[in-house]
Amino acid sequence: MKAMRVRAAGIAFCMALSFVATAAPTDQTESLSAWVKPVETSVILGEGDSRVKAREVAIDQLKRIASASAGSVVENITTVKDDKLTEQMRMISVSLVKLDQIKEMVTVEAGAVVLKVSARASIDQSELARLTRELRQDTEKAKAIAKLQKDNESLREELRKVSEQLQQRKAPSTMDELGQRQTRILTALVTNEGQVRQVFEKGALLAMADADAKRFEDTKAVILQDALMPLVDTPLRAEVVSVVREAGAYKVGLRVGWSAAPIDRAQKILSKYLQSGGLYMAEREREAYFSRRDNAEGRSPNDLKPRLYDFVAKHKVVAVFKVGSKSVELPIMATYQHDTFTRCRQKPESSGDLGVICLFKLLPSSSEILGTVENGYRYSVNPLTIVLPESEAAGAVSVMGAVKLIGPAGVVRQTEFSAPLQGENVSERK
Q1: Strands (E) located in 310-396
Q2: Please, is 289 exposed, middle or buried when counting C-beta atoms within 10 Å of its C-beta (0-12, 13-18, 19+)?
Q3: Of 18, 58, 65, 95, which is most buried with the most CB atoms under 10 A?
Q4: Which residues are bridge partners to 254 per DSSP?
């Protein structure tokens, strides 16, 4: 990509080609209050694997090994045969596993690098029995645990698929993406483990509220990373098409534009989480919008759309063009007040109270710049007019461009200023 693009740094974690998990034998007698056994696991690392990430995978393995080994404890506590309850209690027992005396060693076996991790695992049987009683008596807690159980099954299946893909040789960017996905999955598993405890510590309603908050935060992170941040990489186009001398000053005609592909991708991703208004009739194929009316009115409390709309509406993406010391900002994505007939134009707040998030395409051949207002309700024209004093025009004048994402606290991300792209096919660049 061009110099204007700023890429977020990522670290590819190429995880384990395979896992080998065993419970070590022991002669220790199980007590009434605590189940204690040594456990061990092995993680085979491939080229470029991170030992830190492999250790996280191993710790998760050890907890599940301990829980599986303590299966008889769970069955004795549940007493009455109830397969659904037994499975839920096995999940809960994972969250109760405590590991100490953790030891790790790296060896080479059959040409493969292997991380071996061992620990002493313990489960408080009296605490497990108490939680079992609560689960039987509180249907809301049972529902919350069932949901977390389902989430964990999906996460572990996704982790398995990611690990399989990491075994294959892929492009560095793909490995980077897979490594980041793996990190998110492991973090989600740890978070769910904590939420199991919260179900019982705070009560089912608070646990459900926490789960909703997590869902909201996770979705915000996806929107920011996958929809808003990539807009900053939008390739710009700028070209000086005329210079007119008038009253001791120079009026520079600057024709501008940017690629449509990033806007299309952002609209597609946002449409997964917000109800799109599509393309506005008067500016078909140039302007897409998401209105507050469509996303906030008549929604249930657990619907994320109103909150996600407010989150996105507090951000804007602008293209900045500089000619000499003069600069102008044009909207790529912005939020406006509007009424029924004029959606994506800046209007006084008294004229409407519904709000609309707008995404704009600007081809270099366009004669109007959407999202702007000049002389009342007219759009600003393209080419732009930038006035330079004679003293500045006489020297070397450069045309530069950058894109920035602005949030409630200020600039979130911005490219470095560089010479915009030239040529007729900028709208097709990815």
Answers
A1: 316-323, 326-336, 356-360, 368-374, 378-381, 384-389
A2: buried
A3: 58
A4: 240, 384
Question: What pLDDT was estimated at residue 234?
Answer: 92
Q: Pairing mode, if any, of strands 34-45 and 112-124?
A: antiparallel
Helical residues (DSSP H) of 203-303, grouped into ranges: 204-223, 229-231, 261-270, 292-296
Q: From CA 64, how far away is CA 390, in angstroms rounded?
A: 75
Position 278: which residue type? G
Structure tokens that stand for 290 in this block? 């998401």
Q: Which of 17-21, 193-197, 407-411 is predicted least confidently?
A: 17-21
Q: Identify whether 331 is preceded by a cis peptide bond (ω within 30 of 0).
A: no
Burial of 270 per CB tally in 10 Å (0-12, 13-18, 19+): buried
The residue ranges of DSSP E strands in 111-235, in sequence order, are: 112-124
pTM: 0.52
Cα gap 335→345, rounded to integer Å: 9
Report d(CA 4, CA 416) in Å as an integer.
Answer: 5
Distance between CA 369 and CA 373 in Å, rounded?
A: 9
Is the model more confident about 68 or about 17?
A: 68
